[in-house]
C-alpha cells in the first residue's frame, strides 16, 4: 500500500463490507416486488467494485494534486457549519416533518453559502420539498415524516 489511492480503497472496501453486513440484516417484506434491501446491497457491491478499481489505479499523485488536497482554514469552518446544518436537519426531520425541515435546510444552507436571491431561494426551498413530499406520499405511496403539517 504505497499510494493514497490504495489506502483509501482499502478503507472503502472495509466500509462497504460493513455497509453490506447491515444491508443483509434489513427486514424483509413478503409481498413487495423489490425489497427494501435491494438498493443498499447494489450500492454496497458497486462501492466494492469501484474501490478495487481505485486500488489498481496506476496514476501517480503530483505535487500539484497534493496541494489541491490542502483545505484552507476558512473553508474548514464552512464544512463544519454545513455538517452541523445536516445534523440539525436529520434531528428535526421526525419532529417537524419532511417539508418544514427540508425547507429550512435548503433556505439556511443556500443563504449561508452565499446565494442571495431571496425570491428564488424561497421558491426553491418551499416548492421542492413540497413537490417531493406529495410525490412520495400520494404517487409512490411511500410515507415521509408528516411532522407539524396536517397533510
Automatic annotation (TrEMBL):
Signal peptide: none
Record-linked InterPro entries: DUF1468
Domain DUF1468: 9-145
Record key words, sorted: Membrane, Transmembrane, Transmembrane helix
Domain of life of the organism encoding this protein: Bacteria
TM segment ranges: 7-26, 38-56, 76-92, 98-115, 122-140
Name this protein carries in UniProt: Tripartite tricarboxylate transporter TctB family protein
Species, as recorded: Halobacillus karajensis
Classification of source organism: Bacteria, Bacillati, Bacillota, Bacilli, Bacillales
Amino acid at each position: 500500500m504505497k499510494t493514497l489511492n490504495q489506502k483509501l480503497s482499502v478503507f472503502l472496501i472495509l466500509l462497504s463490507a460493513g455497509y453490506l453486513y447491515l444491508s443483509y440484516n434489513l427486514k424483509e417484506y413478503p409481498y413487495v416486488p423489490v425489497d427494501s434491501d435491494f438498493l443498499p446491497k447494489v450500492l454496497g457491491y458497486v462501492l466494492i467494485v469501484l474501490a478495487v478499481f481505485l486500488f489498481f489505479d496506476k496514476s501517480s499523485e503530483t505535487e500539484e494534486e497534493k496541494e489541491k488536497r490542502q483545505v484552507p482554514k476558512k473553508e474548514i469552518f464552512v464544512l463544519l457549519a454545513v455538517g452541523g446544518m445536516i445534523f440539525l436537519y436529520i434531528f428535526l426531520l421526525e419532529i417537524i416533518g419532511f417539508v418544514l425541515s427540508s425547507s429550512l435546510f435548503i433556505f439556511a444552507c443556500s443563504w449561508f453559502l452565499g446565494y442571495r436571491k431571496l425570491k428564488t431561494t424561497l421558491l426553491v426551498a418551499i416548492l421542492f420539498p413540497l413537490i417531493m413530499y406529495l410525490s412520495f406520499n400520494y404517487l409512490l405511496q411511500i410515507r415521509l415524516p408528516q411532522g407539524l403539517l396536517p397533510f
